[in-house]
Amino acid sequence: MIGFGFGEIAGATFLGYLIDKYGSRTATFVNACNIAVTIVVTLLSIHKHEFNYLTYVMCFMWGYQDGGIIIHTC
Fold first, then answer.
1. Is 64 within 8 Å of 11 (Cβ atoms)?
2. What are the pLDDT digits (tens) for 6-29?
């Protein structure tokens, strides 16, 4: 869950900056890419079926995409 927390902070900070700098349309595309990457990492982690570095990456990506979507929808 530490990875999730770091991802949440990083995703919210990055997407907030992106929205302010480039607008909502670009942020929507980045959010869609983040969701796709999160799905791929999750499927890889499920396929491996063991607790390793990919588990930490998966937790980080879930937090990253969650933080980005929350910032974008508020």
1. yes
2. 999 999 999 999 999 999 999 999
